[in-house]
Design goal:
CATH superfamily: Nucleic acid-binding proteins
CATH architecture: Beta Barrel
Number of domains: 1
Strand order of the largest sheet: 1-2-3-5-4
Shape: globular
Structural class: mainly beta
Largest sheet: 5 strands, mixed, barrel
Order of helices and strands: EEEHHEE
Helix content: 10-25%
Strand content: over 45%
CATH topology: OB fold (Dihydrolipoamide Acetyltransferase, E2P)
Radius of gyration: 14 Å
Distance between the termini: 44 Å
CATH class: Mainly Beta
Length: 115
């Protein structure tokens, strides 16, 4: 079983499988890749889900998650200088995600027209 860690300690777990409990701050899809900005009470990190590795069912679920959805994410920590977050430079290669509660419409999400 992967240890449950706080994001602030992610640098101590490079190349190790970990579990993070937190919220989805933002997600972006680029073809077969899904970038998830994850946060907990200690910081932010990026999760990267690659469709062929996580499977079609999980990838489709990820596409429907709303901002501030509660998640348990398990995956392997990697160094990546381009990865955003605090601490910067680390990401999680997503292997599994458990959705605790999906937030369909976060009440203060910016609208398309910017207001």
């Amino acid at each position: 079983m992967a240890p449950i860690i706080s994001i602030e300690n992610i640098a101590d777990y490079v190349d190790q499988k970990v579990t993070i409990r937190g919220w989805l701050y933002h997600s972006t899809r680029k073809g077969k890749l899904m970038f998830l900005r994850l946060r907990d009470g200690s910081g932010m990190t990026q999760g990267v889900a690659f469709r062929p590795e996580v499977g079609d069912d999980l990838f489709e679920t990820l596409k429907r998650l709303g901002q501030e959805t509660s998640l348990i994410v398990t995956g392997t920590v990697r160094e990546n200088n381009r990865a955003p977050g605090l601490p910067k430079g680390y990401e999680i290669g997503v292997e599994s995600i458990e959705v605790l509660q999906n937030v369909a419409d976060y009440p203060i999400t910016p609208k398309e027209h910017g207001v």
